What does this fold into?
Amino acid sequence: MVEPTPLRYEPDFVTPPGQTLQDTLDGIGMRQAEFAKRTGNSAKTINEIVRGKAPITPDMALRFERVLGVPASFWMNFERSYRESLARAKERALLQKQVQWLKRFPFKKMIQYRWLREFGDTVTQAQELLGFFGVASPDCWNELWIEQPLAAFRQSKAFQSNPEATAAWLRRGEIEGHRIETRPFDEARFRRALVDARRLTLEPPDVFQERLKALCAECGVAVALVRELTGVRMSGATRWLKPDKALIQLSLRYKTDDQLWFSFFHEAGHILLHGKRSVFLDTEDMHGDREEEADAFSRDLLILPKDFDRFAASGEAQRREAIRSFAASIGVAPGVVVGRLQHDGHLPHTHCNGLKVRLEWAQN
It folds into this structure.
């Protein structure tokens, strides 16, 4: 069932509380000058309030109550609503000039994935996008993500290629990560959990996904699988949401179990080997010492070097049944073995792909 488009009542015009004040004075036959004397204000101040040029303060509202018998809460609520309406009108006028900013985002996909609600006009859609990112304006978004990007995201070529889509993907992971309740991070416990996580490679996706999240949450690590967006070339990302809570964000960019598991353990390597101030956005073209360290961590945890070297040298590495048997003997999914053999050149990339598990997002 299609959810109805939410409605927002934002009138094009607002009446200042001063107009109601004038109507009240007219109703009792009192002039502004007399009212000013009775409330201890200048005639100029009362006139400016009537014209919406000056606000009604709490002190004035109490005086109005004594003179007119209209509760101070009425005047204060009216004043607050009026000023809020003015602020919203001003914001809409500014956003109307910045609608091109919205067009840089893949908001249609974000709506399809239910990251955003859909609205009929561009300005309201821009307001929805600002709420998604938790910023007050496009200028604030630009300062946070482009001029001074959070945790130096801009160092990544993946971020540079499509910053708006990449920022949206990262922000979604951040939102999901904050929703996951975790214990405080425990390094020793996380290392032990990764051994259990390795065994989950043998489970089907509908089983391992929830088990992996629960297992890592007990160690202080939130795991978020986030749908891909066009232009986002990342298989994973790692960052710390709090000093005692890490986030591993994964996509299904390559849609096979070997790639997903390698990415997960690669990100886990970043958490254990590298500082809490670092942020890692991982693609196939990422290089550097820390990326190589994370690669080695993932590679060697999934398949011990001595086991892999023995099998690769056995002459059996291109036989499907041999791969199945070897995978069973070391307690890891056959697809993980195939991916490793292909990566290291022991098996053509066209061979034995049927042993990999194909991963797809569940339909909404």
